[in-house]
Design goal:
single chain; alpha+beta; 6-stranded mixed sheet; two-stranded antiparallel ribbon
Length: 191
């Protein structure tokens, strides 16, 4: 008979795997909640969006979508699409620019060129935990739109848990993407 040995720490957290999260979702485990996302093995419930957040996100999506369509190079801006980041994450950013908008399942991580998070109540989470997740997994460019301070944090060149390059632009300034040639967004209309 095999003897079970006690763990040194009885409170070890267990990270939920992406495939288990998707099984739970398909089985209806999260139906009573509006939306969820899996970040580093933990399930987070997404709060309702208030108008300032929703308006900025909507206007920014319209600008990004129009600029990408004009370029006609295969990139598309998707609103609130979940991204597969195995083995323990499935974030649902406000906007993801992908080369694979069509298909079944989650957006493949390797198709994502730019992620945009619009933040009012989630700024610390977006600038710390999500920033580390995206950088660690090689997302080429990440923007955090701070609705309250009226600035856009533009980050690129992922290195480890962070981005090597960063600039802050006030609403009204043009944002020139560093990873999609020719993509520039005039932000005067976003908020």
């Amino acid at each position: 008979m095999t003897e079970l040995l006690p763990l040194n720490n009885s409170h070890l957290p267990v990270k939920l795997r992406l495939e288990d999260y998707l099984r739970l979702d398909a089985a209806g485990a999260f139906e009573e909640y509006r939306k969820t996302e899996l970040i580093e093995g933990e399930i987070f419930f997404i709060n309702a969006q208030h108008r300032p957040h929703a308006v900025v996100k909507s206007r920014l999506h319209v600008l990004l979508a129009a600029a990408l369509k004009a370029q006609d190079d295969g990139w598309e801006a998707i609103v609130e699409g979940s991204i597969a980041v195995p083995p323990h994450s499935s974030p649902e950013p406000d906007i993801a620019v992908t080369s694979e908008p069509d298909g079944k399942g989650l957006i493949p991580l390797d198709s994502v060129k730019l992620i945009v998070e619009v933040s009012d109540a989630t700024l610390a989470f977006d600038m710390q935990r999500k920033l580390a997740l995206y950088a660690r997994n090689g997302v080429p460019e990440y923007w955090v739109v701070d609705v309250n301070a009226r600035v856009i944090h533009q980050m690129w060149t992922p290195e480890g848990q962070t981005y090597a390059r960063h600039r802050e632009l006030a609403f009204g300034q043009a944002v020139k993407a560093t990873t999609i040639v020719g993509l520039t967004i005039e932000t005067a209309q976003i908020g």
